Amino acid sequence: MITDKNLNIIYINEAVRSLLKEVEADLKRELPRFDMATIVGSNIDIFHKNPAHQRGMLASLSKPLKATIKVGGHSFDLVVAPLTSGNRNDGFVVEWANASDRLQNIDYRNQMEAISRVQAIIEFSPEGQVITANDNFLKALGYRLDEITGKHHSMFVDKDYASSPDYQRFWSELNAGRPQIAEFERVGKGGKRVVINASYNPIFDERGKVAKVVKFATDVTERVHAVNEIGRGLIELAAGRLDININQAFAPDFESLRTNFNNAARQLRETLTSVSDSISEIDAGTRNISNSASDLSHRTEQQAASLEETAAALDEITANVTSSSKRTEEAREVATEANRNAIKSAEVAAHAEEAMSRIEASSQQISNIIGVIDEIAFQTNLLALNAGVEAARAGEAGKGFAVVAQEVRELAQRSAQAAKEIKELIRNSSTEVGNGVQLVREVGQALNQIGGFIQQINGHMEAISTSAREQSTGLSEVNSAVNQMDQVTQQNAAMVEETNAAGVTLAGETDKLRTLIDHFSLGNRSAAPARHAPARPVPAGRQASSTPVASPARQLQKRAASAMNARPASDSWEEF
């Protein structure tokens, strides 16, 4: 690009035109006045946001100036030279070049230098011959560059592996353009074993063919050694050997890991030793609790059985007392009725006595009347006798009268005889009535005494009934209390059996924990033997329902096994 002395563009060649045309759209976003159609004839100020600065530089320019500018996301290398004739400045010539590739190469070179400072780098031909290597690689494997240049990569691997199909396939993959990334074990100078975390990267030429193979690697020997030692230590821990101790020092970056592992193993050993001692005490205490709980369960069951029998007996006694109270009440009612009947019978007897007295008085009156009748009969007999005597004196005239007198005398005799018999009957009746009156009087007295006795019996029955009711009420309360005691005792028996079951389960878990502790080797002090005490079996139907919790030793064992079985991390450990 050529400008006149006023910085107007008077010429551009096709190379510059093509370069600017390709990025015209990006340049316009930052340089609104830029236009390829009118670039010839435009002032170079269209390329500058602050033209005064560039004009000041060009005014004093006496020799070519190199510069790199960035416009619209693109970088350009510029060489500006003044066109002079004597002391006169006739214009400027500007050479344009795309700086992207140059800057990118600089960036790549700087990146490679940065990578080379921290990683081991070696280059191989596609056939595997060493082209070059950096200091990190030479230091890691102990060689000088002249000792490995031109040698085959197989010098860094075991002979058996170098002749194996896997090794041939390794290079076949690289020649096919497929990188190989993994952790490799390599052999250094003098048989030194080195572990590297590396990537073998095929580098292609402009035709797309593999021109060489570049390996970027990080020496992870110390890390692998530390991991292997820690792994072996974890295996020992998983096997229960808590007296493990890693004595060989690690690299400084990993030494804290060894120290922490040894401290953890020591603390775990001390902890499990204390746990072992505690287990022995817990085992003895648990078995004593189990035995005591079993004895208590047995006694509680006996007490529950006795209370159950007592409750049943009290139920029966309560029923009997209730029945007796009912019968007593009925007897009291019967006695009351008998008392009323006795009083009524006494009154009837008194009335009978009065009636008998009246009968006796009537009999006496009848006897008196019969006496009068007897006397009348006697007088009539005398009169009839006299009439017969007089009739006899009268002779024939008195025969009829004599017959009548005879009849009257016979009637009088018969009346006298009848009166005599009636009197005799009356006398007998009076005697019997007297006896009856006496008996009725005695009956009345007896009924009065019976009434008194019935009243006494009624009073006693009333007291018995009241006492029976109170006794029934008391027995009902006692029965309720005993039933409640029976239920509580049954519940206590169940709880005791559950406690016993829990004790047996705890004893079993203690045995399991003892078995787990016995798997560990605690150095000079091994796990103390379990002190077994006989434990009674858990009663049927009273098994503990809770699931035993995994012991700390079992959890530790699982964690150690999990750590040993875990896949190794794929990340590099340089910063570890």
From TrEMBL:
Domain spans labelled PAC: 180-232
Cross-referenced PROSITE patterns: CHEMOTAXIS_TRANSDUC_2, HAMP, PAC, PAS, T_SNARE
Family, similarity comment: Belongs to the methyl-accepting chemotaxis (MCP) protein family.
Keyword presence, Membrane: no
Residue segments, region Disordered: 525-576
Full protein name: Methyl-accepting chemotaxis protein
Domain called HAMP: residue spans: 221-273
Domain Methyl-accepting transducer: start-end pairs: 278-507
Keywords (A to Z) from UniProt: Chemotaxis, Transducer
Positions of the PAS domain: 104-151
One matching Pfam family: PAS_4
Domain of life of the native organism: Bacteria
Residue ranges annotated for the T-SNARE coiled-coil homology domain, each copy included: 269-331
